[in-house]
Amino acid sequence: MNKRLYLRMGFILLALAVMLGAFGAHALKSMVEGAQIKTFETGVRYHFYHAFGIIILQFVPSGIRYVNRTKWAARFFLIGIIFFSGSLYFLSLADHFGLGSLKIVAGPITPIGGLFFIGGWILALLSIKGGSKKEI
User: Does this model's pTM top 0.85?
Assistant: First the structure.
């Protein structure tokens, strides 16, 4: 994957986060309880953070050796959005759609997504090429 593809992916994820945020702010209130709305909002918030992270990674100056880490950091963010935010979206809406019995499966997926977020930030850190203090 090249930087242009990651930028497109990041912008698409941001557009999706805006749509989900609007859904959560308007339509969701008539469908679920207050606690489920907060869960949904948490999913949207982390979705936003990590979509921005994917975009920001494309501008991190890195040496040839480090570019692969940047790509993997972006991939980890994408997987984190799917697992973490996606599971929170599901957990918020499961009862409304009669899928409450599947919450036991979706619940453990959330922290796995969180681990992908953490791993992505660590990879982002490791993607920065070392240099002299003058470069900073």
Answer: yes
Residue type, 128: I
Alpha-carbon distances of 92 from 38, 51, 119, rounded to whole Å = 9, 21, 25
**Residue type, position 65, single letter:** R
Is the CB of residue 99 less than 8 Å from the CB of residue 76?
A: no
- Identify the pLDDT of residue 12: 98
Distant-in-sequence, close-in-space partners of 63: CB < 8 Å, separation ≥ 6: 129
Nearest to 46 by CA among 123, 121, 125: 121
Helices (DSSP H) in the chain: which residue ranges?
3-25, 34-57, 64-80, 86-93, 103-106, 109-126
Q: Which of 130, 6, 35, 17 is nearest to 84 (CA)?
A: 17
CA distances from residue 100 to 59, 78, 94, 106 in whole angstroms, order as listed: 42, 26, 5, 10
pLDDT digits (tens, 9 = 90+) for 18-45: 999 999 999 998 899 889 999 999 999 9
Q: Which positions ≥6 away from 66 have C-beta within 8 Å?
A: 126, 127, 128, 129
Angstrom distance (rounded) from CA 136 to CA 133: 5
